[in-house]
Structures are given as structure tokens and as C-alpha cells.
Amino acid sequence: MIRLFEGRAVAEAYALFRPETSPKVASVVLNYMQSLQKNVSKDKYDVMIDVGCGNGQSTAVFAHCFKRIIAIDASPSQVEIAKKINKFDHIEIAEGTAESLPASDKSVDLIACGQAAHWFNLKKFYAECQRVLKPSGCLVMHGYGKPCISLRDSLIASKLSRADESAMELFDKFYASCKFHPNRKHVDNHYTDIFHSLPSKNKIKDETIKIQKECSLQDFCNYLKTWSGYHAYMDQQQKQMQTSVGKIILNQDILLRFATDLKATWQVESLDDNSVPLRVVWTVFVILSGRPE
Question: For 141-162, how does the pLDDT look when each residue is reduced to its tens digit (9 = 90+)?
Fold first, then answer.
């Protein structure tokens, strides 16, 4: 497993600014589980494991579907935050990894992982899924791709030419400057490679769900600050270009440059970042599978 998101500050920022999992993901998963178990009618399934649960945002949407949920993450800081946020007595949160799941053989109905599978050693993870899932059990791997942004003030946007297109061009420039781990490619292609390599004859992929959030430019920038690729770029710049007092040169901050250029493009330079209204949309991808072979 690749481990990048372990500091307390990062865990707290995740809880505040990362998009929450849509309840529609749970609906899609339950419909798939019921399609595999046509002769079984259940109000609640027995056991689910949420792998790479982070602060628990992907766990809570399944709370009404299972009698017991075990949520694990490799980061002690993420686990600490998740325990504070958790409101359900039947959700147990603990440190753990995808390559060593805390369950006995053939005891689990569902294994889920949200925005996390691309960090796993997938060969070992699939072997663990094969071990702990019931013969009728299911695996779901879900996430969301790059966000699309638009100006939420229709009055201002109507006066501009190509307002949304220009915004996305600036965002794509920021994204291209980030220094992501190579495994980030799986998120960019919506887990297409992971889907094709999954050792299962009974698998489908769904991309019909959207997450939409209305927020300020400041909140969106705070979300981008949780990206490992942004931090890797800034760390690289800090090593290469420092002032005499050891502080990074401000014009090398690609996030600051993005926000400044975006406000200029939208002609809202007079507004502070908290007053610039954005609409952010993420496309959700969901891989659903029976027990890996």
C-alpha cells in the first residue's frame, strides 16, 4: 500500500473540504447485491468492510444497509478524525490495511473502498477479498474524477464570453503543474485499467452519478490544498527556489496563481476569495463485482 495522507492537518482538511460520498452510491451497490442474490430478500446485510475509509465520509452512506461495519485506514490521524465524526454504534473504526483485512474467511457481505483502491497492492487486496467475502459477497471500488468548475453568479457569467471554458482551461493548467504519484492515473481514467484487470467474470462499471457542491473560491482552494500533487509541486519548488529567509517565492505558488488568474478571467478581482461563488461537479465512477476469482 502507498501511504501519502497521514498527517493530522491533512486528515482535518479532508474532513472539512473533500466531497462527501453520494448516497446514490449505496443505492447502486445495494441494487447490484440484490441482483446477484435474486432469491434472498434482506432489509440489512450482516457485515461490510470499508477499506481506506479516511475520515469516514464513504462509510456513513452504508450505515443503514448493514448490521455491522468495520472501517479501516492505514493512517492513525485519519482513524482518529473518523472516530470523532462517527455517529453510529455499529460502525467500528480501526487502523488496518487493504492487504490484511480484519475478518475471518467467508464472513463478509461487502467490501467497499472509496477513492482509495489505486493506492493498494491490488494483487494482495484481491486475494484478501477472495478470502473474506462470502460466496455471494460483493466488492465495490468507487471514486470521483477531476472536478469541473463554473461561476455560480449567472448575472456575472452572462456578461462574459466563454466563462466556464476559460475557467476549466486555467484549472487544467493548474492540474498539469501538480506532481502526482503515477498511480493517480487510475483516478484520471476513472479506474478503467483497474476494472479491466479485476479478476472477476461478474463485474460492471457505473458512471451515472454526479456530486455537485456550491462553495466559495476559498473553499475550493482549500480542497485543492488536500491534493498530494499540489504539495509535491510546492515541496519541489521550495527546494529549488528559496529566498534568503528560507521562504518560498510567492509567484511560484500555482494555487495562488490559479485563484488570481481565475478572478481576473471572471472580472471579479475586487471580491475576496470567500465572496466568489463556484459550482463544482465531480463525476463518480463505481466498479461493482462479485467475489474476485
Answer: 999 999 999 988 776 666 676 8
